[in-house]
TrEMBL record:
Highest taxon of the lineage: Archaea
Organism encoding this protein: Natrialba hulunbeirensis JCM 10989
Regions of compositional bias (Acidic residues) in chain numbering: 84-96
Pfam family for this entry, one: PaaB
Region entry Disordered, spans: 80-105
Protein name: Phenylacetic acid degradation B
């Protein structure tokens, strides 16, 4: 029987898959996992799970949430029509006039 092994490096950390072991029962699988996967790197705990007991859900079966579109945060996400907003044009004209008056004074 094949047993999948997940290792946690530090307390509170995630368990990550680190391999598998072949063993006839749970007790032997735990011993093999401790020897093969627990002694080479810092290890806080090990999960040993029968491969048959691991379920998988993929995106064909369920529509996962995905990521939220945050493209509005980037200027490149906006389409420009080539026309500036009237407020921008008025402001630019006012600033240009103010610069001219400063230069004349």
């Amino acid at each position: 029987m094949i047993w999948e092994v997940f290792r946690q490096e530090k307390t509170g950390g995630y368990h990550t898959h680190c391999g598998n072991v072949h063993a006839p029962d749970r007790e032997m699988a735990q011993q093999y996992a401790a020897i093969q996967h627990g002694r080479r790197k810092p290890t806080n705990s090990i999960w040993v799970v029968p491969r048959d007991e691991i379920g998988e859900i993929n995106d064909d079966e369920v529509a996962f949430g995905g990521t939220t579109d945050r493209s509005y945060r980037w200027a490149t996400a906006y389409n420009t029509t080539g026309e500036d907003a009237s407020e921008v044009v008025e402001s630019e004209d006012e600033q240009a006039d103010a610069e001219k008056r400063r230069g004349e004074a």
